[in-house]
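REQUEST
  id: r-88c1
  op: predict_structure
  target: Protease PrsW
  payload:
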Amino acid sequence: MLGILSAGIAPGLALLSYFYLKDQYESEPFSMVFKTFIFGALLVFPIMFVQYVFDAENILQSNLISAYLSSSLLEEFFKWFILLSVIYPHVTFDEPYDGIVYGASVSLGFATVENIFYLFTLGIEHAIGRALLPVSSHALFGVIMGYYIGKGKFSATSNKKWIIISLFAPFFLHGTYDYILITMENWLYFMVPFMIFLWWLGLKKAKQARVLSAHYNGKITSINETFHQ
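RESPONSE
  id: r-88c1
  status: 200
  body:
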């Protein structure tokens, strides 16, 4: 049991630590990051219940609808809702890169609890595969969501556009990920290039967020220096 818990938790904490430590300016309060992680973890239970009802009642019989609605939209919407309602207005969300940290945190909270459940069901021998695919993909969906939420909060214009994209970009990517798993017979041949693309995109957005934070902090410094002259 301890081995399964460790294997289930370790990938999420490792990925969260990576994106957290990439914050080049004021690091986010650990308590707020942990709170966001817990919110994501708690989302597993109502979402799994709704998905169970969908399956039991055969509400979503199409693979396409199942991939994009039952899994992707349901999960990404609630993660997006947590970020928008709890994190977006919070005082600690004070630079664009913070969206990356909180986006990864809420997603990895969800992915970690889901991962533990799957490992208890399937066995610890699946730990590496789940770390490389479901856990890391959730982290990257969260990074992309957080990037656009951060861009929306700190952009002078088009705020609503970026907020909308912050939901639909991870929704589309997550749905595509699930559709490959559900429908492709030789899914690994499609999943490997998709995951390479997803890592490239996620790291690119994290880098862009750091650049935005640098510009934002530079402007704040300039304003403070002007004010104190």
